[in-house]
What does this fold into?
Amino acid sequence: MAEAAVEDRTRAIGEELLADLERYRPRAAERMQDWLLTDALADDAFRGRMLRFIDVFATVETTGDAEELHRLLREYFPPGLPHVP
It folds into this structure.
């Protein structure tokens, strides 16, 4: 009898998790992260730019210089670059 109760509870938890998953809608930042980790990084040229930018971003992040960050974004990801939203 105890095994049946465990099985029933396990199924109930699984059904709750699936219902929550069906209702879940990711926020914009999460959608962008998903895009970066799948579609964008599949492109070799974009991946190379992104990895180089990440290396430089760490130094800008510590200084908090927003203008420098914008300059670097324009430098590494110029307008018209394919695969950039």
Q: What stands out?
A: Residues 1-27 form one domain. The two ends are 56 Å apart (CA to CA). The chain has a mean pLDDT of 85.
